Amino acid sequence: MDDLKLYGKNEKQLDSLVQTVNEFSDDIKMEFGISKCAVLIMKKGKITQSEGVRLPNQEEIKSLDDGDSYKYLGVLESDDIMSEEMKKNIKNEYLRRIKKILKSKLNGGNIITAINSRAVAVVRYSAGIVKWTKEEMRKMDRKTRKLLTINRCLHSQADVDRLYVKRSKGGRGLIGVEDCIAIEVQSLSKYLEKSTETMLIAVVKEQVLKEQRPNADNIMKEKYERYKAKELHGKFIRDTEDGRHRLTWDWLKKGIIKKETEGLIMAAQDQALRTNAIKKYIDKADISPKCRLCGDRDETISHIITECSALAQKQYKYWRHDKVAQIIHWAFCGRVGVKRADKWYDHEPEGVIETERYKILWDFKVQTDHQLEHNRPDLVFYDKQQQSLVIRALGTIHRDVPEWLKKLEMYELIGKFQQACILGTARILRKVLDT
Ligand SMILES: [Zn+2]
């Protein structure tokens, strides 16, 4: 038993109720927290001063003065719920917790989880009890985003709806104050409607929650659709729809990168970074839209990460392509028991590794009878016992995934390898890596 509230029609009845509770508490050896108790007498709807209530042991429960309040289950009340005071307290506590969380060294995923469970929960508790206005809730959400931006967790031009989309759908997974209250009020209403308790049935009859009840069922779906429909922000999510894989958002779901990095990647996907093309076509700046490095094409995020000739050799080949291939090579060596470095980044793949059972080729030109354009696959793994062959070719693309896969002509290519080169009768395991 925690907080207990007694109602009586008059002081006499109230006194009798208090004595009953006192007797019962004595029986079960529980004491009154007398300093936390108060009596409130209302006459004709107004708070009136009273003597308080005296217990048999002469302890006194004092009267609550006009203007004073008491806390019942964490909610400030007097003759009514003290909404304004509650709102002020909740807002301050909510923002205090967010600031504290953002100062922590938590990674991108845990920052959001911590905000949802430690800060948003403070607001959630008040849903259906404190009457928030739309503007008040939106103001808190705006303030939250501002704090995320100040703490370099969210790019100032990044998509707002995406911030609230679930991580499994490509968003950041933050729970907004407005959404949280709407969903909570809705579930409270559903709970009340199903209840068979007399008092709760009375609450439904009084329509306490009726006017606040929104249609909260589709909040998340609507946010996602709105984000996707946006001309610029939604371009990435639309362009990559066909090529998406169940692991595409794994990096977001795991959330193990730094909050700054997570924010930057998402801003790049939202076309929120001010590249020359964005400055020229969106901001209408009087500059050339061309790439600052190669000068050949428009400087878009897609150009920078996939097709800039000035970045191709070092940034793409060495820092991205070779490093990814190195991890796969290192992992495969580990799996088949070939000696490897402890850490993937210390691993130096050899051109050819051959054991009794396996043959691993790294960036190795394969001899073929027919002239093949792509005869230098990144990685070739051959299992002599199983007669299986895995050829890995890594690439990064930004759009038109199905087109790209078609162009690769993987099936034909693998067929030619099988027929012409190493193994004649090898069984092929086809695998195309996602981008
Ligand atoms: Zn370029």
Task: Write up what this structure looks like.
The chain folds into three domains: 11-77, no CATH class; 83-238, no CATH class; 320-428, no CATH class. The longest helix has 27 residues, at 309-335. The protein contains 16 helices and eleven strands. The strands form four sheets. Strands 7-8-9-10-11 form a five-stranded mixed sheet, with helices on one face. It has a two-stranded antiparallel sheet with strand order 1-2. The chain is of the alpha+beta class. The protein is 44% helix and 8% strand. The protein is elongated and about 100 Å long. Strand 3 and strand 4 form a beta hairpin. The site of zinc ion (ZN) has 7 residues, from loops.
Question: Radius of gyration, rounded?
Answer: 33 Å
What is the CA–CA distance across the termini? Answer: 57 Å
Low-confidence spans: pLDDT under 50, at least 5 residues?
A: 417-435
Q: What is the string of SSEs from the N terminus onward?
A: HEEEEEEHHHHHHHHHHHHHEEEEHHE
Helix-strand category: alpha+beta
Give the cofactors and ligands: zinc ion
Query: Order of strands in the sheet with the most strands?
Result: 7-8-9-10-11
Give the number of DSSP strands: 11
Our estimate of the beta-strand percent is: 5-15%
Total number of domains? 3
How many helices? 16
Q: Give a quick account of the main beta sheet: strands, pairing sense, barrel closure.
A: 5 strands, mixed
pLDDT average, as an integer?
A: 82
Helix content: 40-55%
| Coarse morphology | elongated
